[in-house]
C-alpha cells in the first residue's frame, strides 16, 4: 500500500467523458448545486451534504414521485433516519417505465441455463407478463404489505413474480431452491407469507433435482399461505398449486398498474446468514433501494441503456436483487441458473462472450478457482466486456493479476464490498478512478466510509473497523419483528453510538483506495498484530495443492494457549507432510512469523453458509466449547456434515 502501487487499469478519457458520472457532475454544475472537479471532490460533497446529494440524485434520474416529498433528510441521525418524508412512489414502476433501451421491442432479459436452455424477454413482453401476474396475485387477495415468498431459480418468471409483487406494494422474499426445508422455513415462517411461489425442480452440475417434496414440506410449515403458484422449471407440475402459465393466460391483457407506497414502504426482506439462531429479516424500502441502485448501477458501474449486465448469483443472495435492478437504468439483465463450473470453469466466460456481456459480475472464490484451474481467456473473444465485478469475499492480488492477464488492460477490475444489510457496495469502482493491484478504488458516492480504531478515531493506512458515519437510504427500514428497534441497534450501533459498524476490517490508503481484510469478528490477533483472514487465505490457497482452507485464532475464545489453527482441504494425491513445510515458509515470509499456524489439520470440507461464506466465527465458538447446535444452525449451512470434524476436535481438546 505504497504510493507507487501497481495500477492494473486506467480510465479511458473518452469513456470517462461519455460516462453518466461525468454527465451528473456537469448537471450539478449547471443547476448550481455543486461544482466538483473530480470524483474525490464529488464524494466529499456527497457525504458532507447527504440531503443535497440524494435529493439531486433523485432529480437527475427523474425519480417519479406520485406524492412529492416535503424534505429529503430532516435530520442526519442513525438509527431512525427518515428519508423523503411525505413521498410516495413504486420501485416496479421505475423498473418497467419506458425510456432509452426500454422500448417494447428492446430485449429486457436474457436467460441461460446450464443445460443450454436460452430464452429472451423484450420490455414489452416483460410489462405484459408483470401486468398479468399482478392481476393474478390480486385475485388471490394480495395487497400492500402482504408477503409473497418464493423458492425459485434465477429465471425470468422469478423476475416477473417479484415485479408483480412490488407493483402491488406487497413484500417479496426469495430463497434458492437448493435451500433445505428447515432453512427456507426459518426464513419464510417469520414473515407469514400469504402466497408461495415455487418451482418443481432445478438443474445443477449436470443433474436435474426434484424439489417437489421440499415444497410440500415447506408449505406445511407456512400456515398463512393461502395459495401456491407453481413454476414447472423442471418440466413437472406442483400438486395443489396454481399453474404459472395458466395464470398468465387467464389474466393476459390486464392493465399495468402500480400502487404508490411511502418511500420507506417495505420492498423486500433479505436475511442474515442465520449461522446463530434464526436468520434476521432485513427489511429494505422501495425508495431507498431505488435511489441506491440507480446510483450504484448508473454512476459507479456506468451501466448504459441496452448494455448487457450479468452477475452470477442465486435468488438467495442479495446480488440477485442488485442484478435485476439493472432494469432501472435500461440495461439488459442476463440471468443464469446452474453451476458456474459446469461443464467447466470457462462456461460462464463463454456465455459472456456469446451474449455480448458488458459488465460481468462474479465472486472472488470463482476468480480464484479459475486461476487455480489454469483457465485462460482470450480478450478478443469478449469484445463487449468492459468491466468485471467481484464481491462476496476479498479478491486476492493473485485474482487481480489473473483477471488483468486474461482480460487485458481495457477491462476494469471492479472489486467491490458492501453487504446484504444495505443491498449495495460501500466501496468499489468508479469510471474515472484507476484500479490499483489488490485494492478497491474508492468509497461509493453517499457512503461516508471510514476506518475506526478501537477508540473510535479514524485512521489512514492502518487496519480499522469499517464504519459509516452518515446514513444511506438503502440501510434497513427495520428488522422483521423488531418493533422497538433493539435488534437493529445491537447489530450496527452498539460499538460506536450514532455510527454504523459493519463488521469488516478495512484499510483506507493515503490515496483514497481501500483494502478489505475480512470479517472483524474473526480477526487473527497474534502478539498484538491484527490481521484479517483474507490475507491468510490469499497465501494458503495460492498453493496448488490446497483446494480450500479455514483459519481459526482461538485466542480469547476459551483456549488457554490461544492456538492458530489452519484447516486444509487438499487435492487428491497431496500429502500434508509435503504441503505443510512449504506453507510455513511462505506464510512466514509473506505475512509474519506470528501468523504461522501452530497446527495444520486436514479436513474433507470447509463449512459454508448457504450463500457460500466460510463459517469462521461458528467454528471458533465450537472450538471454544460452545455446543455445536448453539454455535450454528446446521440448516443454515450448505454442507452441515463439514462441522463434524470440528465438533470432534473440540471434544478431544
From TrEMBL:
Per the record, the GO terms for biological process are: lipid metabolic process
Which residues belong to any copy of the Acetyl-coenzyme A synthetase N-terminal domain? 39-95
Q: Which residues form the AMP-binding enzyme C-terminal domain?
A: 540-613
* Record EC number: 6.2.1.16
Keywords from UniProt, A to Z, are:
ATP-binding, Ligase, Nucleotide-binding
Q: What molecular function does GO assign, one term?
A: ATP binding
Residues covered by the AMP-dependent synthetase/ligase domain: 105-471
Q: What class of enzyme is it?
A: ligase
The record's listing under Pfam families reads: ACAS_N, AMP-binding, AMP-binding_C
Output the SUPFAM superfamilies linked to this UniProt entry: Acetyl-CoA synthetase-like
Against NCBIfam families, the record matches this protein to: ac_ac_CoA_syn, PRK03584.1
Membership in a protein family: Belongs to the ATP-dependent AMP-binding enzyme family.
- Spell out the protein name for this chain: Acetoacetate--CoA ligase
Q: Which organism is it from?
A: Jiangella ureilytica
Organismal lineage: Bacteria, Bacillati, Actinomycetota, Actinomycetes, Jiangellales
Amino acid at each position: 500500500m505504497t504510493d507507487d502501487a501497481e495500477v492494473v487499469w486506467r480510465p479511458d478519457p473518452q469513456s470517462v467523458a461519455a460516462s453518466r458520472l461525468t454527465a451528473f457532475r456537469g448537471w450539478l454544475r449547471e443547476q448550481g448545486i455543486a461544482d466538483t472537479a473530480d470524483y474525490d471532490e464529488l464524494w466529499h460533497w456527497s457525504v458532507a451534504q447527504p440531503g443535497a446529494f440524494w435529493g439531486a440524485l433523485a432529480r437527475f434520474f427523474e425519480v417519479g414521485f406520485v406524492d412529492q416529498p416535503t424534505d429529503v433528510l430532516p435530520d442526519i441521525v442513525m438509527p431512525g433516519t427518515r428519508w423523503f418524508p411525505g413521498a410516495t412512489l413504486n420501485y416496479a414502476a421505475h423498473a418497467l417505465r419506458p425510456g432509452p433501451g426500454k422500448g417494447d421491442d428492446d430485449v429486457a432479459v436474457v436467460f441461460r441455463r446450464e443445460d443450454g436452455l436460452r430464452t429472451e424477454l423484450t420490455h414489452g413482453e416483460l410489462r405484459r407478463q408483470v401486468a398479468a401476474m399482478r392481476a393474478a396475485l390480486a385475485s388471490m387477495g394480495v395487497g400492500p404489505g402482504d408477503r409473497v415468498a418464493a423458492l425459485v431459480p434465477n429465471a425470468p418468471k422469478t423476475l416477473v413474480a417479484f415485479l408483480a409483487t412490488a407493483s402491488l406494494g406487497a413484500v417479496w422474499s426469495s430463497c434458492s431452491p437448493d435451500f433445505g426445508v428447515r432453512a427456507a422455513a426459518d426464513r419464510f415462517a417469520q414473515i407469514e407469507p400469504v402466497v408461495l411461489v415455487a418451482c418443481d425442480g432445478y438443474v445443477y452440475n449436470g443433474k436435474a433435482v426434484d424439489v417437489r417434496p421440499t415444497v410440500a414440506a415447506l408449505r406445511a410449515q407456512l400456515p398463512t399461505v393461502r395459495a401456491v403458484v407453481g413454476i414447472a422449471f423442471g418440466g413437472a407440475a406442483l400438486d395443489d398449486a396454481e399453474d404459472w402459465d395458466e395464470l398468465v393466460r387467464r389474466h393476459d391483457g390486464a392493465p399495468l398498474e402500480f400502487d404508490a407506497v411511502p418511500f420507506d414502504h417495505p420492498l423486500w426482506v433479505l436475511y442474515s446468514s442465520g449461522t446463530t439462531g434464526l436468520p434476521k429479516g432485513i427489511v429494505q424500502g422501495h425508495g431507498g433501494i431505488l435511489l441506491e441502485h440507480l446510483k450504484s448501477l448508473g454512476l459507479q458501474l456506468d451501466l448504459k441503456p441496452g448494455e448487457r449486465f450479468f452477475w452470477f448469483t442465486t435468488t438467495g443472495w442479495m446480488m440477485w436483487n442488485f442484478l435485476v435492478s439493472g432494469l432501472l437504468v435500461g440495461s439488459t439483465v442476463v440471468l443464469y441458473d446452474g453451476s458456474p463450473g459446469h461443464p467447466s470453469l470457462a462456461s460462464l466466460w463463454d456465455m459472456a462472450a456469446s451474449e455480448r456481456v458488458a459488465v460481468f459480475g462474479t465472486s472472488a472464490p470463482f476468480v480464484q478457482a479459475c486461476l487455480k484451474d489454469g483457465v485462460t481467456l482470450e480478450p478478443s473473444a469478449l469484445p463487449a466486456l468492459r468491466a468485471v465485478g467481484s464481491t462476496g469475499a476479498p479478491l486476492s492480488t493473485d485474482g487481480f493479476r489473473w483477471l488483468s492477464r486474461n482480460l487485458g488492460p481495457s477491462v476494469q477490475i471492479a472489486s467491490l464490498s458492501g453487504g446484504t444489510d444495505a443491498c449495495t457496495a460501500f466501496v468499489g469502482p468508479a469510471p474515472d478512478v484507476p484500479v490499483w493491484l489488490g485494492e478497491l478504488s474508492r468509497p461509493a458516492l453517499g457512503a461516508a466510509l471510514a476506518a475506526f480504531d478501537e477508540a473510535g478515531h479514524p485512521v489512514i493506512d492502518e487496519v480499522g473497523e469499517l464504519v459509516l458515519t452518515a446514513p444511506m437510504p438503502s440501510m434497513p427500514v427495520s428488522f422483521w419483528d423488531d418493533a422497538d428497534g433493539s435488534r437493529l441497534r445491537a447489530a450496527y450501533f452498539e460499538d460506536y453510538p450514532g455510527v454504523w459498524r459493519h463488521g469488516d476490517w478495512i484499510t483506507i490508503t493515503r490515496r483514497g483506495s481501500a483494502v478489505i481484510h475480512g470479517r472483524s469478528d474473526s480477526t487473527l490477533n497474534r502478539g498484538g498484530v491484527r490481521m484479517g483472514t483474507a490475507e491468510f487465505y490469499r497465501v494458503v490457497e495460492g498453493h496448488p495443492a490446497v483446494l480450500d482452507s479455514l483459519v481459526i485464532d482461538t485466542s480469547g475464545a476459551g483456549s488457554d494457549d490461544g492456538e492458530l489453527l489452519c484447516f486444509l482441504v487438499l487435492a487428491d494425491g497431496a500429502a500434508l507432510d509435503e504441503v505443510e513445510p512449504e506453507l510455513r515458509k511462505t506464510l512466514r515470509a509473506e505475512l509474519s512469523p506470528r501468523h504461522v499456524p501452530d497446527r495444520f489439520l486436514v479436513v474433507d470440507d470447509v463449512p459454508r453458509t448457504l450463500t457460500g461464506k466460510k463459517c469462521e466465527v461458528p467454528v471458533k465458538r465450537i472450538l471454544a466449547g460452545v455446543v455445536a447446535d448453539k454455535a450454528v444452525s446446521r440448516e443454515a449451512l450448505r454442507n452441515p456434515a463439514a462441522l463434524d470434524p470440528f465438533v470432534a476436535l473440540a471434544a478431544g481438546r
